[in-house]
Amino acid sequence: MMEKLLDACRFVVKERKCEDVEINILEYEYRAVRFGGNRITQNMLMREAKVNVTAHAGKRKGTASADGISRDTLLTALRKAEEVARNVPEDPEYTPPYEGEVIRGEVKEMKIPSEEEIAEALGKIITKAEREKVSAAGILERGRINMVVANSRGVEVFHSFEKNSLSLTLERDGVTGYAHGWGKDDPEELFERAYEKIKISGKISEIEPGKYTVIFEPLAFSDILPFFLFSLDRREMDEGRSGLSGFLGKRVAPEMFTLKSNPSTFNLPPFDEEGVPLMERKWIEKGILREAMVTRYWAKKKRIPFTGRYRHCEVEEGEEEMEEIIGKTERGILVTRLWYIRWVDVRKMSITGMTRDGTFLIEDGEIKGRVKEMRFNDSVLSILSSISGVGRKGERCWHGWIPVFTPPVKTELSFSSTTRF
User: What is the pLDDT of residue 401?
Assistant: First the structure.
């Protein structure tokens, strides 16, 4: 299939009437199965190809999208992109297509699981759910994604990677527990992780708003980090439009915390949407903000190296087990999942969101019981600077916007109110 995608790119390059052209193709083939109430409710086999064509005419650019890689479809998208490029104003920050060193990825033959194989995997969860008298719901997705980036300056890069995730919510008497796996996670082990939260039952207490010591499970902390990554733009920092302005080379977290990006951790493409190579980069090294993302335009203007655009990150593992971190906590909150996280003030990097599916009170180094879910309002920088513990065992999470690898993290978080549930 990869050769067909490359042929599609070459066809667009050959048929262009404009000066330059860029092509991005994402081709998906995967099985998605939803389940709820301990039964399979939907079974889909997804096959699609998403195409973006960008035409360059002088210092003008136009982009058109298409579904599919038939020659008629590609030609229609190309002509639309060229028409747009002819009619838009010149871009004062125009950058031509990338040309230079490239890193090609891997091409893997990945088998799409059969309905029987999917049913067997989910059957293990449903059997356990019925035995424990809980209701199981979620979605399992397994398959592959092919990505190709090419342009008329000679760039042709490609990569194949797996789409393999399972999300699971268990519910009994209004009490829920959640677990999410990305990769070749064992469905039965995932069930146990969600069920652990259900087993801590009893009276749900309500705590007062305020600043608390918090231990984030990996899934919960993985939803905080994208807000930091999206603030890591060198131009915005230089122009004073980022919450990280003025922090380059300075401490933003304790020495135990290192944040980096490496596509190989997730088997993602080693290039960005322009074909620019992506290598391992340490954004925060032992608490010091070392690097920021630099576009090709800003690199040329400021005469600094460009980095490419990274859409994944990882926290280096610490040395403590989760049980040790909890055991050293006199009083705090264990947060297992977050949702509805939104910006409050981008320049201050302040965010708001809510806990869900299991939030627990810790006292004297032990989990004492479940508390009512809460809303938080805090700054990402405050959360990072308050870190006092980094766990040993990390998890790959692709639950929200971007892939994140992180262990449990102990820090401080400001809660503003309880929720209605």
Answer: 67
